[in-house]
Amino acid sequence: MANRYDEQLVQEGAAELQELFALLQGAGVAGEVRFTPFLARGLSIYTGTVYEIFLKDGRITSSIGSGGRYDKIIGQFLGDGREYPAVGISYGLDVILTALTMGDSPFEARSADVFVIPLGTEAEALGLANLIRKSTSLRVEVELMGRRLKKALDYANKERIPYVLIFGENERAAGTVVVKNMISGEERTIRIKDEKDWPSIFTQMQA
Q: Where would I find the Anticodon-binding domain in this sequence (predicted)?
């Protein structure tokens, strides 16, 4: 019979999974993630969710990356016994190189074109970013470092990201988003309707 400690671990694990899939659903990528209770990695190292990454087109069946949450390993190296929240990932460069040489590659090296700044709307902002990725060829980055608006705008300027989307609680309630052209300074409040609208929105705001 399971003891209370085991029951608590099960409850904590279930709560973490619910939170994880809520974020994945908000990002609009829940359908691309598969949960398996049989995946096990480094039981003496990892303290939370573990994952493996696969190519969607299936050109290679083995994973191209893997990792997980490990809150205790940093404290073990430092010798202070503290827990430091940390998530790590490692990539199989040889597998990725093989995939890149197998026909036309969909990967393109360039900086972000759009920077989404959520103001208390992180989960929905992930979904907004994914909507833009699906409907345009633009690279989209989401502010998840907890920076205030001014600091986030400074980051966009420093990284020369041409478009910034400001998405706060008022915009969420109104079904809108503020789009700012960082080059021309033009700023518009756009109503979020359908993904087919996004290509024309950025075309109209080109400097």
A: 113-194
Instruction: Express each pLDDT in 183-200 by its tens digit.
Output: 888 899 988 876 567 777
Its pTM surpasses 0.85: no
Both 64 and 24 in one domain: the answer is: yes
For strand 140-142 and strand 163-168, is the pairing parallel, antiparallel, or unpaired? unpaired
Counting beta carbons within 10 angstroms of the beta carbon of residue 85, is it exposed (0 to 12), middle (13 to 18) or buried (19 or more)? exposed
What are the pLDDT digits (tens) for 57-95?
787 888 999 999 899 888 988 989 899 999 999 999 888
Query: Are the CB atoms for 149 and 117 separated by under 8 Å?
Result: yes
Interval 97-122: pLDDT, tens:
887 777 654 444 446 899 999 999 99
Identify the burial level of 144 via C-beta atoms within 10 angstroms of its C-beta, where 0-12 means exposed, 13-18 middle and 19 or more buried. Answer: exposed
Structural domain including 40 reads: 4-100
Nearest to 142 by CA among 134, 171, 161, 150: 161
Name the domain count of the chain. Answer: 2
